[in-house]
Design goal:
- The chain has 122 residues and is α+β, with helices and mostly antiparallel strands.
- The chain has one domain.
- Helix content is 59%, strand content 14%.
- The chain has seven helices and four strands.
- α5 crosses α6.
- The longest helix is centred in the C-terminal third of the chain and has 16 residues.
- The two termini are 20 Å apart.
């Protein structure tokens, strides 16, 4: 499963990834972490656009960053896609969703081809 994510979404997604699992799943998560992380070139563009950092939160000029650094296509296993989707749905269902996860929810839960296929199977 492939999904396109903006820099901000990639950073938020890193915090959603499962921290436990089988050897195979953790190996897959490690590979995805590497693809979600900023490349050296992206980091060089990103760093000057950071306005402030506090308690792990990054305040940056996201509009400019999104204009300069395009979405990146990330390859996810079906298992990992479903884990991220489940985490986002759980946050929403429990009214624990935060603003930084809204666009990820739209991509993983509402707007993906993967989700549309599952809807047509019902």
């Amino acid at each position: 499963m492939k999904i396109k994510l903006l820099v901000f979404e990639r950073i938020v997604c890193l915090g959603i990834l499962p921290r436990e699992g089988s050897y195979y799943n953790l190996k897959n998560i490690r590979e995805v972490r590497e693809s979600l992380s900023l490349s050296d070139k992206e980091a060089a563009i990103f760093k000057p656009l950071i306005i402030s950092e506090s308690n792990g939160a990054i305040n940056a000029n996201w509009y400019e960053i999104n204009k300069i650094i395009p979405e990146k296509e990330i390859e996810l296993s079906d298992w990992l896609f479903d884990e991220i989707k489940g985490s986002l749905k759980k946050d929403s269902d429990n009214e624990k969703m935060t603003d930084d996860k809204v666009t990820l929810y739209e991509k993983f839960v509402r707007g993906t081809e993967h989700d549309k296929q599952h809807e047509s199977d019902k």
